Amino acid sequence: GTMSAKEPIILLEKVSKYYGAKDSDDTTRVLSEVDLEVYEDESMAIIGPSGSGKSTLLNIMGALDTASEGSVCIADQYLNKASENELAEFRRRTVGFIFQSHHLLPQLSVLENVLVPLLAEPKPKGMPEAEERGRNLLKRVGLDHRLNHKPGQLSGGEKQRVAVVRALIHKPRILLADEPTGALDRKSSENLGQLLMELNHE
Ligand code: ADP
Ligand code: MG
């Protein structure tokens, strides 16, 4: 192919995060001038001990938190310059989030749970298509026989797969996962890791 330079989908430049007044005795410095480039199709893991700032970094990339200093550009959008409306739109469309604890709603079925993010739409439209997409994704992760089950009837690994589908229902360009296998046994953990790699590839 041609040698056109591709822009990174995630570009962090000298991103710092601290709590308290800068350079004072009680400043808690969590991130210090972090540079990061991630390109479309890439999968990346951020590894470090508890308290080293992994969640803080992910939350900044997902616009759930803000950097104290530095530039955060995700999918061509400079988050430090975006308005509240633009940030809300960004959270709804550009990123999907998976957490260590699945946060599924216990009273809803599996299929209803994966459609929950669509309720945040200002004007919900295309619900039949979304439901079809939800069914297809649940099939893709091996849960087509669990559509009408409640989360309480599923194993830990199955619940996390539902959470993955819920995070993908909007076709986000970026999937951010904060210790998504942290509560799973080793086998389920490996399966989920494998699934995430495959989905990104697809
Ligand atoms: P990790 O996900 O790697 O375990 P976190 O990003 O959750 O790390 O936390 C990084 C550091 O930020 C921790 O030392 C934590 O104490 C600190 N921290 C988080 N929130 C606050 C806050 N509101 N005020 C002061 N320090 C905080
Ligand atoms: Mg964390």
Describe this structure in words.
The structure is a single chain. With 202 residues, this protein is of the alpha+beta class. The chain is 33% helix and 18% strand. It contains six helices and six strands, in the order E-E-H-E-E-H-E-H-H-H-E-H. The chain has helices spanning 54-61, 84-93, 110-115, 127-140, 156-168, 186-201, and strands at 10-19, 28-38, 69-74, 77-78, 95-98, 174-177. The strands form two sheets. Strands 2-1-3-4 form a four-stranded antiparallel beta sheet, with helices on one face. Helix 5 packs parallel to helix 6 (186-201). It is globular, with a radius of gyration of 18 Å. The two termini are 21 Å apart. It binds adenosine-5'-diphosphate and magnesium ion. Adenosine-5'-diphosphate (ADP) binds at residues 19, 28, 30, 48, 50-56. Adenosine-5'-diphosphate binds at residues 19, 28, 30, 48, 50-56.
Would you kindly provide a brief summary of this structure?
33% of the residues lie in helices and 18% in strands.
- Hetero groups: adenosine-5'-diphosphate, magnesium ion
Count of helical stretches: 6
- Tell me about the largest β-sheet: 4 strands, antiparallel
Mean of residue pLDDT values: 91
The arrangement of helices and strands along the chain is EEHEEHEHHHEH
List keywords for this structure.
single chain; 202 residues; alpha+beta; four-stranded antiparallel sheet; two-stranded parallel ribbon; 18% strand; globular; binds adenosine-5'-diphosphate; binds magnesium ion
